[in-house]
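re: ur question from earlier - yeah i can do the single chain one, its not a big deal. heres the input i used so u can compare w yours
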Amino acid sequence: MNIKELRYYHDLVIQKNFSKVATHFGVAQPTITMAIQRLERELGAPLFIHNWREYPHFDKWGMNRLLKAR
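and the output i got, formated as tokens:
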């Protein structure tokens, strides 16, 4: 886990859109996706409920991780 991945996650919670976060950081959208997947693997739990048709829904565990990261 690194600070960049946490920043991606933080902005994703606020923006609720992978493409907007990628644009904000000047990276490709898959970069954001892979960073979130690395965080989830390292933490051993999903940070949000995955649903490709809608914006990411953050579960309680994921939100608690964000608050601790702040």
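The chain is about 65% helix and 0% strand. not sure if urs matches, ping me
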